[in-house]
């Protein structure tokens, strides 16, 4: 470790800014991992590492673990510690849409197992950490090699409706995880030492030097990658990365420069998020994201664990067709209008989900309807095949409009369109987005 006092304050500030943007996805991920895999007193605890927790029911407003959750595909989640040995993931054959996405500690995706990538047949896959050197080829349908020693799995499985719940639960129960040694029937390796997990307290950690305390801990599970070697070296000069960072031991001017860097990073993230850009650049594999750490940070903040566009393409609306008025169902009624021949081209399915703002969570409504799409029974189409979805707080009086009603909160909202398995016209821009129109 270098001497932070010898580093120029401006350099410290810039390093802190870059590190805050780069590391915010790691902390966002830890914010979810800690209650699910570490804190056994938390109701969100899944049972530790190597255990699936399935959510057989669609998300409701009571579910707040994820930002902008999908209401079409109930989740399955698990966390793996790959330090001692790899894990084996097995899936059954199924005709329904599903995806099990494996992500590194910084939310970059390691790989995908599911309908689009590996097909509908049963399969067995090895998930290995960065230090695994064994022979992983024989007996597996695929190998996913992580860059970090802690990884998460977030699965999505399509649910057709309440009547489909028993079949969904049966399928989810067949997603299985085992250590490689248990799969092979061999003696397990020595267990990795139990870390002293920092308690996740609240989001205020992102505004203080406590951010770097947590980042220092998490970097112990994250070997240095070539593309990030320079930043990691500069962080090491500030004492971050060795596992013993103490902000109180730093000189006052160093702490002040780091705090200014945190403020700069937060401002850059807020400015980028305020642009309202499509989420196509926010999510993907490490190769897809490259060095665009700001986009990754926005994704971790706006829709943690969103999927890359080739899996699920999504976009949202924050303003009406006039483009200058935020959506607010307390002040107006809206329609989302798909012209004839312009329904979303989807290989699997598409849906529109309503979220309250600013937290981007599902909104309570008396109908209990949180999304609407091509699998929704009873939708009323125009004679020419067009479709108009009704977005308003109160239930429409007309039966046709009520059938197409997606209830909105009595206040600010946004809607997200998801296309599962988007066809080429969606990905290359030939398909035109429908207009969201203010009706009164």
From TrEMBL:
<protein>
    <submittedName>
        <fullName>DUF1254 domain-containing protein</fullName>
    </submittedName>
</protein>
<dbReference type="InterPro" id="IPR010621">
    <property type="entry name" value="DUF1214"/>
</dbReference>
<feature type="domain" description="DUF1214">
    <location>
        <begin position="319"/>
        <end position="423"/>
    </location>
</feature>
<feature type="domain" description="DUF1254">
    <location>
        <begin position="51"/>
        <end position="179"/>
    </location>
</feature>
<dbReference type="Pfam" id="PF06742">
    <property type="entry name" value="DUF1214"/>
</dbReference>
<dbReference type="InterPro" id="IPR037049">
    <property type="entry name" value="DUF1214_C_sf"/>
</dbReference>
<dbReference type="InterPro" id="IPR010679">
    <property type="entry name" value="DUF1254"/>
</dbReference>
<dbReference type="InterPro" id="IPR037050">
    <property type="entry name" value="DUF1254_sf"/>
</dbReference>
<dbReference type="Pfam" id="PF06863">
    <property type="entry name" value="DUF1254"/>
</dbReference>
């Amino acid at each position: 470790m270098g001497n932070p006092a010898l580093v120029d304050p401006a350099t410290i500030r810039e390093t802190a800014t870059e590190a805050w943007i780069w590391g915010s996805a790691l902390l966002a991920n830890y914010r979810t991992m800690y209650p699910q895999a570490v804190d056994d007193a938390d109701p969100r605890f899944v049972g530790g590492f190597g255990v699936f927790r399935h959510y057989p029911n669609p998300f409701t407003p009571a579910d707040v673990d994820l930002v902008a959750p999908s209401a079409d595909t109930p989740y399955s989640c698990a966390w793996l510690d790959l330090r001692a040995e790899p894990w084996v993931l097995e899936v059954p054959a199924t005709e329904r849409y599903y995806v099990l996405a494996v992500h590194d500690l910084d939310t970059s995706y390691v790989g995908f197992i599911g309908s689009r990538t590996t097909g509908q047949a049963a399969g067995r896959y090895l998930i290995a950490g960065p230090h695994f050197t064994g022979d992983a080829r024989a007996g597996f349908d695929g190998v996913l090699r992580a860059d970090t020693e802690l990884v998460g799995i977030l699965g999505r499985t399509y649910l057709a409706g309440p009547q489909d719940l028993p079949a969904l639960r049966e399928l989810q129960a067949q997603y299985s995880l085992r250590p490689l040694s248990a799969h092979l029937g061999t003696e397990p390796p020595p267990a990795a030492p139990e870390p002293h997990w920092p308690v996740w307290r609240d989001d205020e950690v992102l505004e203080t030097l406590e951010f770097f305390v947590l980042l220092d801990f998490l970097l112990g599970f994250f070997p240095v990658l070539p593309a990030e070697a320079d930043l990691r070296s500069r962080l090491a000069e500030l004492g971050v990365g060795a596992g013993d960072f103490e902000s109180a031991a730093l000189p006052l001017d160093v702490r002040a420069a780091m705090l200014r860097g945190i403020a700069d990073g937060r401002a850059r993230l807020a400015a980028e998020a305020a642009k309202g850009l499509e989420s196509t650049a926010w999510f993907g594999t490490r190769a897809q994201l490259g060095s665009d750490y700001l986009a990754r940070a926005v994704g971790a903040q706006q829709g943690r664990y969103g999927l890359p566009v080739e899996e699920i393409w999504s976009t949202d609306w924050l303003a009406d067709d006039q483009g200058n008025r935020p959506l607010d169902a307390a002040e107006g009624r809206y329609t989302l209008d798909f012209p004839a021949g312009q329904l979303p081209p989807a290989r699997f399915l598409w849906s529109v989900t309503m979220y309250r703002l600013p937290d981007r969570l599902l909104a309570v409504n008396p109908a209990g309807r949180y999304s609407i799409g091509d699998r929704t029974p009873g939708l009323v189409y125009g004679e020419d095949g067009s479709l108009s979805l009704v977005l308003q707080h109160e239930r429409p009086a007309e039966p046709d409009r009520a059938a197409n009603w997606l209830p909105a909160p009595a206040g600010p909202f946004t809607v997200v369109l998801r296309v599962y398995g988007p066809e080429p016209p969606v990905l290359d821009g030939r398909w035109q987005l429908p207009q969201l129109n203010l009706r009164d």
